[in-house]
Structure formats: structure tokens, C-alpha cells
Backbone:
DNA sequence: GGGAGTCTACCGACTAGTTGGTCTGTCGTC
DNA sequence: GACGACAGACCAACTAGTCGGTAGACTCCC
């Protein structure tokens, strides 16, 4: 289905978005990186918005798959959340894709084409819903404690993760800084039952 | 000193950056908004990087002045932090400048000119230092409680605020959402002595 | 008082390069 | 011979930035 070139265009676009955002990458960048004609990119993705929508759609799917797989193998809510938070710590440490493209695009939101903006919003909704599910389950099982309801806890966690990414980026890709900011956000939910 | 045109260019550039970032605004935008020639902008700011550096420098100064003034009039640490957090809630509610330009530029950091990147980093350092001072003083006076040291607490607060801005922007400028995410971050520091 | 020179603020017209996007083709494969 | 995958050449619009010039204010000197 998805041809090799098609996938490589998506890959390149994604890595360009990770560290330049929507407005600072061009068809020429992808063309040069892959050694293909610009027209080839237009053949697979008629417009820039189509390309970026496809990137985020794939990203959303990967996120859903990843979180779903983790939920299947890890029943403990605290570990699930730690898995999500730790995933990004590893990304920053490896410096491969050290930023959530949806968070970056969210910052640029007012300047994005409508279709792209919708995808970004959808990612936030999905991610929040997934984490809300984890937290809700954890609270009901007594594995987690929180003074807020599950959804609010999830939003706080996501915000902290995104803010910590920003801080780490400013600090030159400092994974320790990311961890030191996010760790207390996890502890907040697992406190007093940490030694389970 | 600072002529009227000079200031208006800065104002316009700042508001363009707030909702488009560095790469998605142009001299032509400012030129059109103010009804002046593009060459006039170049007269005051030789290059785009110079312009944006000037915007952030002024922004940093305003932040320092604002936080300094608040510290002078409000001795209670908890209120100082609430003032910082509440400032952005009001900005989002009024929809005038509903995003911290330094946070937005931080996301775009890898694609920014070096001089601009430096200014962004400097803002983060200054802001963290200021809040660290507030928290440190609050802890020593017994007005605040924290399981982490003051600097780490400050970084967590900043990250939460930035993450909450992102969430609010995605939600279409939802100030309530911003508040619901940031409020617990403040409570974390003021808990058990809230009724002072 | 009146030039003559100088400075700042500003603008219209321009440039070289880049942007996203199109058109017309040529391959190879089924 | 139709079709998907690709590319070269092209396009209009836009990018940051330059150039030469003008209009006004502020000197300084006679």
C-alpha cells in the first residue's frame, strides 16, 4: 500500500516538523534530503496541508497503538503513566525526536491551515482520553490517589510533560531536567502507595 | 528616545509572534498593519533577527519590571506566585496576548537565529530565577511547603504554566482550562497553610 | 538672518532567492 | 495501452534585504 517513497516523505516531514514546526520547513527541504523531485512530493501529497495532516494522522495512530500495547502488557496504572512520561525522556535522551509534534504545532495553532489544526486538537483529545482512562482505572483500583478527578489529572500530566519538553529544549536537550520536572507530577498521583 | 514608529513596529511584531511564531510573520505583515514602507522597518531594525531580539529584550524587561513591582507590593510568597499564574489567566481571558512569546519561540528554537535563541534562553533563566527567589523566601518564612528545592519547584511551575497555555490554545482560548490545570500546581506549594 | 552641511526618518522601486504548486512529459509494469 | 511513480522545467507570489532618494529638523559659521 504505502510505497517506500511515500513513507520516506512522511518520515522526513515528521523529523523536519519536530524541530522546525509547520512554517519553517519546505518541499525543497524534503526534496533535497531524499534526493527526489519536488513534484514527486506533490504527487503523493497534493498540498503541504495534506502532507502534514498525513504526518499527524500517522503520529496519532502510533500514539494510540503504543499506549494501547502498553496498557495490554502493563496492568498497573502508575507504571502506565510512568511509561508515557518515560517514553519522552528517552526520546530527549536519544535526541531522535525530542519533541511532540502535536505540542509544537499547538503553539503555532493560529497560523495553521484548518485541517491541520483539527488533527492537532484531535491528538490532544485522544491523548487526554487515554490517560484519563489509565488514571480513572488506577483511582478505582486504589492504585492512585488524587485530589482532582481523572480527566483533570490527565490534563495536568500532559501539560507538565509538554512544559518539561519545552524546558528541556531550551536547556539544549537536557533529559535530566525533563525528568526532574515530570517526576513529581507522577509522584503526586502515586504518593503513599509508591511501595506497592 | 524610542520614536513612535519604532515602538509601533515592536508592538506589531510582538502581537504577530504571539500567534504565528518567528517563521510565519513577515516584514510585509508589519508594513501592511501599520501602513508604512518595508524599508522603514529595515531602517529601525536592520534584519528580522534584530527586530525579534528587540521584541524579546523588551518583553524580558517588562517581565522583570512586572514581577519586581509585584514583589514590592505583595510580601506573601503564595500571592506572588498566584499573581504570576493569574496574569496569564487574564491574558487568555482577554485574548490580547494569550501566549508567552518566549514559550512559543522555545518550541521553534532549533530553527531560530542564534541571537534570538539566546534571548529566549535568557528569558527562561531570568523567569526561573525570579520565581525561585519567591519560592525560596516563602519556604524560609514557612509560607510555602515543598518536597523539592526552590529551583525545581520554580521549574515545575513554569512548565505547568506553559503546558497549560498550550492546552488552553488548543481548546480555543479556554481560560477555565488553563486555571484548572495551574491551580493544583499552586496548591501544591501552599497546601496546609492555605488559610493564612 | 541665511546659507551650507549633516542627521534622522522615511519611502518607492528594486533584487536575488525561496515558497507552494502546476504542466508536460518519460519511464516501467501489469 | 493504460496506469502509477516519478522528474524537469516552469510559474506567480512571496521572502528578507538593498538602493537611491526626499523631506524635515538641527546645527555651525559667516
Residues:
Amino acid at each position: 500500500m504505502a510505497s517506500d517513497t511515500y513513507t520516506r516523505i512522511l518520515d522526513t516531514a515528521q523529523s523536519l516538523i519536530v524541530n522546525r514546526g509547520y512554517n519553517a520547513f519546505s518541499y525543497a527541504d524534503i526534496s533535497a534530503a531524499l534526493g527526489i523531485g519536488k513534484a514527486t512530493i506533490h504527487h503523493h501529497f497534493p498540498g503541504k496541508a495534506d502532507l502534514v495532516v498525513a504526518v499527524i494522522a500517522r503520529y496519532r495512530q502510533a500514539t494510540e497503538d503504543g499506549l494501547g500495547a502498553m496498557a495490554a502488557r502493563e496492568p498497573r496504572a502508575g507504571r502506565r503513566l510512568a511509561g508515557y512520561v518515560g517514553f519522552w525522556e528517552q526520546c530527549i535522551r536519544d535526541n531522535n525526536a525530542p519533541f511532540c509534534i502535536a505540542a509544537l504545532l499547538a503553539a503555532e495553532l493560529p497560523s495553521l491551515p484548518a485541517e491541520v489544526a483539527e488533527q492537532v486538537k484531535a491528538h490532544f483529545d485522544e491523548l487526554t482520553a487515554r490517560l484519563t482512562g489509565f488514571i480513572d482505572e488506577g483511582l478505582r483500583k486504589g492504585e492512585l490517589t488524587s485530589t482532582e478527578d481523572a480527566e483533570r489529572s490527565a490534563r495536568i500530566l500532559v501539560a507538565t510533560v509538554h512544559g518539561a519538553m519545552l524546558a528541556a529544549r531550551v536547556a539544549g536537550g537536557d533529559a535530566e531536567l525533563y525528568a526532574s520536572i515530570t517526576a513529581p507530577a507522577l509522584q503526586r498521583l502515586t504518593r503513599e502507595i509508591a511501595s506497592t
Notes: Residues 55-190 of chain B form a domain with the Tetracycline Repressor; domain 2 fold (CATH 1.10.357.10). Chain B has a mean pLDDT of 94. Residues 26-28, 38-39, 42, 46-48 of chain B lie near DNA strand D (CB under 10 Å from a C1'). The CA atoms of residues 187 and 194 of chain B lie 8 Å apart.
